[in-house]
Amino acid sequence: MSPHPPRHRTEAAGPTDSRYGQYDQDGDFLAFLGAAADARATSILESYADDLTQLRDQGKARAAARSLRTLASVHVHGGSVYHHDGALLAPLEQLAEGLAEEQFEDGLWDQGGAHSPPDTAFSVVDLALAMGILDQDARSSTARLRSTVGQILRAAGPGLATGGVHTANHRWLVCAALARIHSQQPDPSYVRRIDDWLAEGIDQLPGGEYSERSPNYAAAVTNPALLTIARLRGREDLYAYVRANLIVGLFLTEPNGEVESIHSRRQDQTALRPHLPEFWLQYRELAIRDGDGRFAAVATLLSERGTDQTFGETPVGDRLAEVLDRPELARHLPDPAALPTDFEHHDDSCRLVHVRHGRNTATVFGGTDFPEVRAISSGLSTNPTFFRMRKGAAILDSLRLAPRFFALGHFRAEGLERDEEGWRLYAEVRGAYHQPLPPGHRRQDGDYTLTDDGRFWSAMDFPHREREYRTLRTEILLRQTPGGGWDLAFSQTGADVPFALELCFRPGGELTGDGLERVSDDTYQLVHGEAAYTVGEDRIVLGPGNGKGGRQPPVVDPGERYAWLGGSLTPDGIRVLITGRTPTPYRLTLR
After folding, report:
1. How many CA atoms lie within 13 A of 399 on its CB side?
2. Which has the closest alpha carbon to 88: 70, 63, 62?
3. Cis omega (within 30 of 0) on the bond before 583?
4. How far apart are CA 481 and CA 530, in angstroms?
5. How would residue 395 be classed by pLDDT, with cut points 50, 70 and 90?
6. Using the 8-state DSSP alphabet, how is residue 110 labeled?
7. pTM of the prediction?
8. Neighbouring C-beta atoms of residue 7, cutoff 10 Å
9. pLDDT one-digit tens code per residue, 439-489
10. How far is CA 145 from the centre of its chain?
11. Residue 501: CB partners within 8 Å, gap ≥ 6?
């Protein structure tokens, strides 16, 4: 399949385009999006040439459906170089036919899970959107394509209306998919299923995050799904949830466009991703709907940052279809308002604090799920990073504390409280030694129940044994200092054990200090004095060193839950270790 763009660009969509005629359209926005879509379509066509098997192979339905959506958008868009270009019909039809062939009899696809309703819903949302804009365009040349896509949607609907889900956001995704199918192929069973899921209540926390606390899934799944349901099912109440989530995003966004995700319960809790661009059209939609100048400022900023057409995980050109589906998004934005740049944001529902003073930011986190469930698992917040700090381009991505106490691993706070001068993190962990079994529970054959003592399993019948405990209590007091710095006072009492503080800086800068000793390629121990991490004119100074107390070479113990499985908690970057022994207190200065 080779791209055959027309020799002359069609005039950009303007007031004579019936799709936008009722709105005071933003020509610059449409031109930017149209050019990005053309570039994206060209990339799709060039990447797959005459061989669509990469997209049509089993398990690739999501990629194929998204490619079909993007190609359909430039085909119908009056401002595209591909507008009504017959050369697109063959690849569009091949994509649709491949998707139809890959469907099982229940209308679902295998993509990450066997006969998966939620994974199928991702593709259905894209296909139904493409179907809608193709139907509105109503070209006889796309009749065959629309017939195939319509059959796919008809086959998928019953499986989505009866199948289950895995995660919280899947509920709203399936609802959005069913709402789209129902708008084109009405079926009362689809409405009943949507109402069943919505009757569970939207899982939004008091601070504005959803229960997964994930910027990635809020931007890519939950917010778009709720907006679709609100529009297609007349559920005006759902806009409030999206609005609240976008508001909290204003206070979790870093100067470079990254969104704080340390508190997430999903994969992005340890990832460094520019989440904010994924919210682009959501901020635009609510800015236009509400007349909110703050949202307009974010949408404008993202348009400016997206001129390279690659910002975010979704290529900017893929978004044209959403604007064709909701032409009101092409309206002019309200006048932008100033965005918050000097604040202290406390979300008690996530036990998270985010502080910003211009280009200086910091995060304090005490809300992992570990103290409550004592497990490391998918779907839980377990990242032991409790502090982050930025001074412009100099970024301390992670500060962690790892005592070597019963192989229980890193400090994970049980609570976050406001202190007189700042914030307080605290936790208490215990390790047990077990006494002999009482006479009534002893067996001559020595065959005892396999049980868990809280950190390991053994055939010891632990519940019936008396225990003697060793306890480690940790308190960290965090206070801002003039000039954007922080003081962190560490108190660890109850046990005499070595510990390591691990500071991990984002690569790209220079680490200096006379008291630094190399431990490995990117890891150093600060033995005495101060060290500095510098990126351009931005610098973070840390210290003091604390000698060579503790084990040598210094060890950051992730705990038995990781070590037994051969897992690693070592963050990527330039690491500085400061070691010592409890119960001696230590004060870390960052400035």
Report:
1. 25
2. 70
3. yes
4. 17
5. very high
6. -
7. 0.92
8. 6
9. 999 999 999 999 998 888 999 999 999 999 999 999 999 999 998 899 999
10. 35
11. 399, 400, 401, 402, 490, 577, 578, 579, 586, 588
